[in-house]
Amino acid sequence: MSVPATSANLGPGFDSMGIALDLWNDFVLRLDGGHAGLEVTVVGEGEDSLPRDETHLALAVLFEELQRRGLPRPASLRLECRNQIPSASGLGSSSSAVVAGLLMAAALRLSVERGRRIRPHEIDLSRVLARAVEIEGHGDNVTPAIFGGLQVVYTHGEHYRNRAIPIPPTRVVVCVPDFLYLTSEARAALPKQICHADAVFNIGHAMLVAEALRSQDDALLADAMRDALHERYRLPSIPGALDARQAALEAGAIAVCLSGAGPGLMAFARRAHDIIGEAMVGAFRRAGLSARYWVLSASSGGARVQIG
Description:
Number of strands: 10
Shape: globular
């Protein structure tokens, strides 16, 4: 199966808005390896750092879900990971693994219950979403990872709901510095309480960001991409991030925001994408950090499942 990268928050859409990007992690689960035991291979991003045992996040989620359902672990299991999404970047690498683990668990559970090989459309993605949000604690990454596109996720009583907002083809520049900024640290940087005015500010701006992307109103996007809840606390913690944002705007970006909790930055632009990427890399370099950038299209599709 393949799961796309995602960028969450989109400035003011804190914990409630995210977009899928055309950068993918592929997970291949094989149950007929011909030998008892567990084998994990990782190629690409994270190949020098991600675990090769049952602590790999996709497997940890898979095994937890099987245990919850009273199902045994397969005696022979091989997981092959081909990763394009950089780890700890703000591009939803961990969410891709969570979603992959849940989809693998759902496929295995249904195969056992129905006594046959199932088809991908038989997996209830709404149940996968509910469990993914329960694991992650918020749905702005996992929702576009599952369904693709620009997604808004919200609670309805005890349930999670999502709504896709159709947008025209969109290209962004994502620049990720070589700086370890864990989501737990990014969360810890936020205040325990917020003021009423900041909440109202973000509600209005988040709605306008969604409308600007839908209508391709660049002037509105530039004006609406402002946040009062998280970026002001997180950006100063990432060396060079404030300068990189300014460099991107001066190079022609329409609007720039943190990608998720960071440390990556995402710039929306119509043209000069490589110039914008190089400008951000240069700003991080001046702050003492190496950085990489990607020019990516928004992905209208989410996780793809193949059962062979």
